[in-house]
Give the backbone structure.
Amino acid sequence: MTGSDHPPLKPLKIGDIEVANRVFLAPMSGITDAPFRRIAASLGAGLVVSEMTASDDLVSGRQMSRLRCEAAGIGAHVVQLAGCEAHWMSEGARIAEAAGADIIDINMGCPARHVTGGQSGSALMRDLDHATSLIEATISAVKVPVTLKMRLGWDDRTMNAPELARRAQAAGVQLIAVHGRTRCQFYKGCADWAAVRAVRDAVTIPLVVNGDITSYETALTALEMSGADAVMIGRGAQGQPWLPGQIGRRLDGGPAEAMPTLPQQLGYVRSLYDEVCRHYGLRIGLRHARKHLGWALDTAAHYGRAPAETLKSWRHKILTSDDPQRVHQALEEAFDDFAWSAAA
């Protein structure tokens, strides 16, 4: 194919900020730290969002919270905040803005029990009056645009995303992202992109659809079914930081692109590994990097059609090592092994 079968989309703005394209990297706790966002942005993601940061932890100055809010250095800096008290949300937003955030995103979509148990994340969809008060407090605290991420509702009986979206727009939110599942679904079943259309019908601000988007084809279908203006890719980018950029370029009228070669993939994961270790310091960084190494090995082994036992052996050798030099050497050997499988 020499070009996309989808007409190029008009530029999308969040307030006065024009995003690079219509494919965003979703905020993922423990994953979308500054190193991962940096590589995804450098490979063409239209917008990257920080992992969720508890607003009260940010205000109290916890080191890990400050690290979560660190800018990736490429494109608009979006900080996602979570919380259940207006005071902490407004103070956290002020601190994030002062530290360089171009956009503040409010989390009302996280389904994790440790978040919803504290009445944050998607638990806020059970009390729209309280949710609205948090949105208003955040917006009043900063001059930068404020966006909102949510789910369809708490459960199948309370699909209240359209009403929350209406309230958010009236309060001044400038973009809304909706994951096409309820909180009680967690990540089970399939994302219901068609259900997001009710949110499209409720608001006029930009809308982003999220959930199960793993290819250009699924992105196109999600846009058509939801009526959204953009898509957000989460788990699909694990081990594939180039995916949002590839899909974004194709939605902009570019040609279909092949997956990066094994040498290119090796370069990406080695760079990411080093950056993660620098970002957190070696002791913590080694632990954080393992998930990225595992996903990268899975992706490369699938590309090379390597036997399951070969992948298992390399995963064990690489993911149990605490010596960066040995990890680099083993990665090079593993990718060579996958290349032999691909050539066989």
The first strand starts at residue 13 and ends at 14. Residues 153 and 243 are 28 Å apart (CA to CA). The chain has a mean pLDDT of 92.
